[in-house]
């Protein structure tokens, strides 16, 4: 999988679900059954999100009604992708406070890892891993103490081609430390690590990378943020990853599946030539 630009892929009208320990879509499944998962309640719909602001600013546009009804009406993840250690705590606190007041569960996507996207279209992040940990510590201080879902570092584990052995070890340690820092800041935070998607690395390789990055300290992993694969394929892939993790003695992990753009034909992950690109199942 190559990476998409952050603006194209980051809508994450994030749907949540758990399957065999897996998922972010319409259903929460626990290991081997179709029973409810451990989270309950509705996801936070930010009344000041970019799409809500667009709808308000374009009342006469012919597309406004459908965008309002089909997209702006749904919760979305809030992305934290700017390196702003001095202000990130207050920005997180603002989102968390609004979600708590609405009695809804916020979804925050952290996208700050050093050498993000291997310098590709979504390049950026913290200048180095020491500054990354400073940013994460400040981020964690704003999380409060109620349930919040953290999508931690898209592509950071699935895309490693630009890293040397020592750089890979440092990244794995950085993500492990970030996970533990967030959990320490808010024990009710649900943290998920990068699992790529079902047409990228194998389930076994994905499980190995998750273990190296400290998934034992997290709640599970997420998939399909950087692709448009069907929910069923992602859920099957997630079950295989969870089975591989179980074989390593790492149990009880769940999967988040991004369904925000996977409602049309599969293939052509970049979406430029596929005329059947659609939003997928709504967030749950």
The helix/strand class is alpha/beta
The CATH C-level name is Alpha Beta
Low-confidence spans? 1-36
CATH topology (fold) name: TIM Barrel
Radius of gyration: 18 Å
Order of helices and strands: HHHEHEHEHEHEHE
Name of the CATH superfamily: 1, 4-beta cellobiohydrolase
What's the domain count? 1
Helix content bin: 25-40%
CATH architecture: Alpha-Beta Barrel
Strand content: 5-15%
Number of DSSP-assigned strands? 6
**Largest sheet, described in full?**
6 strands, parallel
Q: How many H/I helical runs?
A: 8
Q: Order of strands across the widest beta sheet?
A: 1-2-3-4-5-6
Mean pLDDT score: 86
Terminal residue distance: 26 Å
What does the overall shape look like?
Answer: globular
Explain what you see.
This protein is of the alpha/beta class. It has one domain: 1, 4-beta cellobiohydrolase (TIM Barrel, Alpha-Beta Barrel). Helices cover 34% and strands 9% of the residues. The chain has helices at residues 6-9, 50-57, 64-72, 88-101, 129-141, 165-185, 203-212, 231-247; strands at residues 78-80, 107-110, 148-152, 189-194, 220-223, 254-257. The chain has a 6-stranded parallel sheet with strand order 1-2-3-4-5-6, covered by helices on one side. Strand 4, helix 7 (203-212) and strand 5 form a beta-alpha-beta unit. The protein starts with 5 loop residues before the first helix and ends in a 27-residue tail after the last strand. The model is unreliable at 1-36 (pLDDT under 50).
């Amino acid at each position: 999988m190559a990476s998409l630009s952050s603006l194209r892929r980051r809508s994450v009208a994030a749907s949540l679900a758990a399957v065999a320990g897996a998922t972010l879509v319409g259903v929460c499944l626990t290991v081997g059954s179709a029973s409810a998962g451990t989270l309950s309640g509705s996801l936070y719909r930010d009344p000041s999100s970019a799409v809500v602001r667009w709808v308000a600013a374009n009342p006469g546009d012919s597309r406004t009604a459908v965008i309002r009804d089909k997209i702006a009406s749904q919760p979305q993840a809030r992305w934290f992708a700017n390196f702003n250690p001095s202000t990130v705590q207050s920005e997180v606190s603002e989102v968390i406070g609004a979600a708590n007041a609405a009695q809804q569960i916020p979804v925050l996507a952290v996208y700050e890892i050093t050498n993000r996207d291997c310098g590709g279209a979504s390049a950026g992040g913290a200048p180095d891993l020491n500054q990354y940990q400073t940013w994460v510590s400040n981020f964690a201080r704003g999380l409060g103490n109620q349930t919040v879902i953290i999508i931690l570092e898209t592509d950071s584990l699935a895309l490693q081609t630009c890293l040397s052995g020592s750089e890979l070890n440092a990244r794995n340690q950085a993500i492990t430390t970030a996970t533990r820092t967030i959990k320490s800041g808010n024990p009710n935070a649900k943290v998920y690590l990068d699992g790529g998607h079902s047409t990228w690395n194998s389930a076994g390789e994905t499980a190995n990378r998750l273990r190296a990055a400290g998934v034992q300290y997290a709640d599970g992993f997420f998939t399909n943020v950087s692709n448009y694969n069907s929910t069923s394929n992602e859920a099957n892939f997630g079950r295989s990853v969870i089975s591989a993790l179980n074989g390593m003695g790492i149990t009880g992990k769940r999967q988040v599946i991004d369904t925000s753009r996977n409602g049309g034909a599969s293939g052509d992950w970049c979406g430029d030539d596929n005329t059947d690109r659609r939003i997928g199942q709504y967030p749950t």
